[in-house]
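Re: the multi-chain job from yesterday

Posting the exact lines I submitted so nobody has to dig through the queue logs.
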Amino acid sequence: MLVTILGLVQLCLIWPVFPLFGSPDPFIFGFPLNVAWVILMVLIAFVALLTFFVLEHRGKNN
Amino acid sequence: MADWIIVLSICGVYLLITLIMGIIPGLKVSHSTTGYVAGDRSMNVLVLYFVIGASIFSSFAFLGGPGWAYSRGVAALYIIAYGAVGMVPLYFFGPKARALGEKYGFVTQAELLEDRFNSKWLSGLMAVLTITVLIPYLTLQMKGAGIIINTISEGMIPIWLGAAIAYLVVVIYVFFSGVMGVGWTNTFQGVFMLVIAWFLGIYLPKALYGGIGPMFEQLVNSDFKQAMTAPGLDASGQPWDWWTFSSAVIVSVLGFSMWPHFFMKAFAAKSDRAMKLTIVLYPTFQIFLVPILIIGFSAVNAFPGVTPADSILPYVLLNMELPVVLIGLVCAGALAASMSSGDAIVHAAASIGVRDGLTKIPAVQSWLQSGDHERRLIRIGVIVISLIAYYFAVFSKTDIVSLLLGAYGGIAQLFPIMFALFYWPRANGKGALAGLVGGILVTLLFLNNPELKPIPMHEGMYGLIINVILLIGVSLATQPENEDRIKRYTSF
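And the result, structure tokens for all chains:
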């Protein structure tokens, strides 16, 4: 599951998904779309990893 | 007092703090190879996070990152695009490597390979590959440090002396403290660099354009619009193509965690939790590349025509009439970027060269493994490797950048083999060796003859395809490894 999510995140950062968000327009919070897209993907990767880590760890404590 | 003396004094204070922080932890670790190479397997999350994060924040990030943004626009997003997920393989490999290291005494990646695949050749090949790619990497860091000190002293301190001063500090603390010296200095340097990067990334657009949004708007509405459309421009200034961008990202994702100076840190981790949490937190370090790129973007319209693009950060600093103390802090930050990568590299190269290279020579093996000869020799290796890199940085005319360009393609060839090591019991030594050798040769072939490529993909991709075919084909065609051996690696 984690590998699938992170694989999808990576796919979003290369062809064929990234070109869909490759234009600088529109601007999002002052950043061009392509820059904002890459930042969003890093954040998603972080949240996914953190969620799995917390779940896995909680399981071990029980 | 001349401004440059104040700036240099700030860098001097920074170097002194780094030296002290590097020497203290060496007093605590044991006088053994495990202590020197893997810090007695005692690194906590804080230190591991900064060791891995700050090692990546090299001269390339501080000088090359803004340079890419300045000359190639959003092509610079490539650096973030591969780092987002690039460390994740260590989330899975790291704890396994750590557990095996603790059980069997491994402290390097090659020792894992040698044991699982029952092949001394693999370990020797790893030692050669590692040193071949790490020395040019170290050379670039040294050059970066020399250039920074030379620029801020207004040419009063030559590059050779600047590089020598910064790296004398590195050699002293790596010699004395080993990996724990790398760890604690990287924590200090990491925090320092992050503060500087964020400050500049917010301050420069604000001072020059009134904010980050107005800066980007101006870029998109100028001649730079093409560069602001993904995937940006290539090195010659033409629009980059998606094939090359995507394949370069994939090769870098696979190679990223395979760099020996990162992978080896799995053996230094205190616990599985520390190792995993470090990887979980790593994307937060990746976000810090955003202000670094903004530094380059901010200079596009404000300072057009600066060459080489890599000098854009020092150029902006010297031309913006910033307070002199601030310039000093930024220069110290750039030195931190160079040194926090250089220390990890020289430590890894010396450890691997001795542990996986010299120790395998039967004539010296028993002598090395008695007493603390091995640790002493690694320390000497730290000095020797630094001197070799220093020679290339200062005296040699060899084109090291091209060597480094090939490095990622070469390092990525380790990925299929490390993956098979943990997850494919049928893989054997012959298959691993054939895959690695074949992959490296194909990468080198296309690196040196790009006109032979059927489609414009990164040469490492071609290497990986051949690598996987050979790994699978040769393994299936030959005898599997002994079952007890396999069990050690699959019983998790």
